[in-house]
Fold:
Amino acid sequence: MIRLERRPQPSRLWTGLTPLLAVLLTMVVGGMMFALLGKPPLEAIRIIFWDPLFHPQFAAYSRPQLLVKASPLILIAIGLSLGFRAGIWNIGAEGQYIMGAICGAGMGLAFYPTTSPLIFPAMVLAGALGGWAWAMIPAVLKVRFGTNEILVSLMLVYVAEALLASVSQKLLRNPEGMGFPGSRNFQQYPAAANTEIIVGTGMHWGVVAAFVAVIFTHVLMTRHIQGFNIRLTGEAPRAARFSGVSPARIIILCLGFGGALAGAAGLFEVSGPAGQITIDFNSGYGFTAIIVAFLGRLHPVGILLAGLLMALTYIGGELAQLMLGLPGASIQLFQGMLLFFLLATDVFTNFRIRVGTTKVA
Amino acid sequence: MDLSSINPALLIASIMISATPILLAALGEMVVEKAGVLNLGVEGMMITGAVVGFATAVSTGSPTLGFMAAALASAVLSLSFGLLTQVMLSNQVATGLGLTLVGLGLSSLIGKPYEGMKSPTLPKLDIPLLGDIPVLGRMLFSHDAMVYISLLLVLAVWAFLKYTRAGLILRAVGESHDAAHALGYKVVRIRLMAIFFGGACAGLGGAYLSLVRVPQWTEGMTSGAGWIALAIVVFASWRAGRVLIGAYLFGGVTVLQLNLQAAGARVPVEILSMSPYLITILVLVIISARGVHGAPASLGRPFHASS
Structure:
């Protein structure tokens, strides 16, 4: 008889080990899935995890992509991790990402075609504010009425998508775009473009912001009283209230921080890699970031690594699509499985597995 | 705007059709939550049901088989959630989200070859006598079988929870799993069965979307219906009858919104298309402002026999 015995404290060893185990399990089961789809499993795994970095022909193109794809994931996941730590479930980062992009791009387009070094910083600010404001809706509703933030933040994703469709066809549409939906392309408006800082590395301002966010959050969580309050609220809500931590303030702080980072990520994406506001410029980063946050164990440095790994699966997935004809959706499933296996193997972190019968006291 | 183009009898009939998928999913989720489990993966189970039902119906030519396959597939998928949360004691919120992500990925993988196809759809039942009543007949008594099955299911769930011993045990497990465990009830087993039922219902709801309501397969076609079903459970204060009301109100908003778009109302299209989501938020706010009543006391809490 196998039974679980709760550990007095989560195992530090397993906390670090489970993500690796989950990745390994995902590779095995994912490989079986590829085999079922009639693709060579080992080759597919190699193309996804190895070739983007070391293939003599493709690596030159795909290595810079790693930072480009990882930066929005890391930015959003860092923001989400704060809330998840406090037991506040913002799952509408996708909507905050879209609203950040719309607000930031709107700010930039309003100044077209003037040039000033202040335009891009203003856009970043507008993007972060847009995401922050969108996240304030579930935050205020939760604080004021106790409304479930999970459902509200998620519903707002669909509202944001409807708004995105609207602005890319009407308000922000490129007047010289011959009637096609989509805004002006920021690549042709240097004052507002999020360009590569070091050419050929994929290093743009969003990557810088992601690194800053990682360091800032690490300091906040380990050295600052608010970080302690956030952890306390998540681990012992009652104790937090007795020690004078205001739950309302934690909710506003966590959701707001997450929204602002997601909004900034949206702006960096739309003014850089995506280039313009289009109906479907958003590619589900807001949802994948949830996986990144968990895979990174809600720890800033972990999230940094997890973001890079998840970016690798995106790039490797595209490569596998190209070389093996692997369906794009299989990568989505692959990422979902990763979260599942992570949550499953987490049982080792919190419990000891005991074999044998319970002793009767 | 030409409101006269909206025919009230047809309007009510289409409300019933558009409410059925959400009704089925919300009803299943209500039973799951009554057992004390919060499964946020409804969206993922629905879309899996939608694609499996569609694929089965297309390849066998039988929509009935499609519905059955959809229910089975989603129920099996939901068991993975059950295994993780009940046996391996993972966080229910995170696992539910994971289930949604897995379901979305799985469905678009399975559904790729079926895009743009047409499937056989359920025949409209011609109920003798009742179906011949002038206006009411067309409005209420000329639907396909699933509409009536979903209504019967509401009745069955209500009676099960209120009048049967098994229903009482299920509610006991949801209210206080420790007390239920002390009385010797198998908490984990009961919860797994509830999760299985919830998955099957969500699958039926999804299949109704892809086989009757739309009827076609497109990627991400549930577009939040599963989340709305979750909201309806809260709106309904965990009562079967109110789930019915909630789902039909919501179906009404959806249909009215589409009708207004078609009638060329002077409201911008984007406002209309975001209205179902905005109204869901509004309803959630009103409900929570009044104070949520009737949530099972152990909802979302993990159960571990030795603690």
